[in-house]
Write a structure and sequence with these properties.
InterPro entries: 4Fe4S_Fe-S-bd, ET_Ferredoxin. By secondary structure, the chain is of the alpha+beta class. Helix content is about 20%, strand content about 25%. The structure holds iron/sulfur cluster.
Length: about 70
């Protein structure tokens, strides 16, 4: 599945890293980034923890990208 990060919405709460530490990491200022790339969209394995991280982001800074 593909996930999009919207850094302007991130409040650096840390929740996504708690839920999916292998997917989400942070810049020095605490704003979310992917663990493996600094791109704002990435293809990641479909996984319950990652889906939970996306759904529980309090500001919707993480979004599932629908693919056709
Ligand atoms: S859960 Fe959302 S607001 Fe919190 S650090 Fe992750 S992306 Fe940012």
């Amino acid at each position: 599945m593909k996930i999009k990060i919207i850094p302007d919405k991130c409040i650096a709460c840390g929740l996504c890293h708690v839920n999916a530490p292998r997917i989400f990491d942070y810049h020095d200022n605490g704003i979310v980034k992917f663990y493996t790339t600094s791109a704002l969209e990435a293809e990641v394995p479909t996984d319950d923890h990652t889906i939970t991280a996306v759904k529980k982001c309090p500001t919707a800074a993480l979004q599932l990208v629908k693919t056709k």
